[in-house]
Amino acid sequence: MTTSKASTTSIAAKYGTARRTVTVHVNERDVTREVSTRTTLADFLRDELGLVSVHLGCEHGECGSCTVLFDGHSVRSCLMLAVQTDGHTVETVESLAGNPAELHPIQEAFAEEQGLQCGFCTPAMVLRTKEIIETGRDRELTDAEVRHEISGILCRCTGYQNIVRAVQSAQRRCRGGGRDA
Amino acid sequence: MKPPPFTYCDPESVDEAVALKSEYGSDSLVLAGGQSLLPMLNMRLARPEVLIDINKIGDLQRIERWDDILEVGAGVRQYELEDHQLVGELVPLLPEATGYIGHIECRHRGTVGGSLAHAHSAAELPCTAVALDATVVVRGPSGIRTIEARDFFQGRMTTALEPEEVLVAVRYPVTPQAAGHGFVEVARRAGDFALAGAAAVVNLGEDGCFTSVSVGVSSISDTPVRASAVESALIGEAPTENNIARAAEEIVPSVTAADDLHATHDYRRHLASVVVRRAITAAVARAHERRNGT
Question: In what pathway does it function (chain A) (predicted)?
Answer without folding.
Answer: Alkaloid degradation; nicotine degradation
